[in-house]
Known about the structure:
Helix content: 55-70%
Distance between the termini: 39 Å
Number of strands: 0
Order of helices and strands: HHHH
Radius of gyration: 18 Å
Strand content: under 5%
Structural class: mainly alpha
Number of helices: 4
Amino acid sequence: MDSAWIKRIFLAAGVLTFLGALPVMAGYDYKFDQRINPMGNYESEMSGKLTRGAVNTLFGWTELVKTPIDMAQGPKKNFFKVFFAGVPYGVVKAAGRTGVGIFEMVTCYAPQKPILPPIQGVVV
């Protein structure tokens, strides 16, 4: 396949994903919003799973930085431990969070309990 076709396929997949998420997110009730949630339980869980998946997909790369920093602030501060354990562990956590985010976005029509806890500081 030509690289132009691959770019078109990824562009079409992104546009379809975005357009598919619009109706689901249209009535999403955020935690800081005081309105009554007009959606039923199924729609609320579905939109919550889609939002979690989008956040994990978009911000999963932050584990590359967050994990070594968390290890450096622990009680056993050691440069070699942070560099040789924290960086690879951050890469694994980033890949895992991004993969789970993609999985949750694709399967948002079958609500379930969260697979991963949310990233600290992100309001979902």
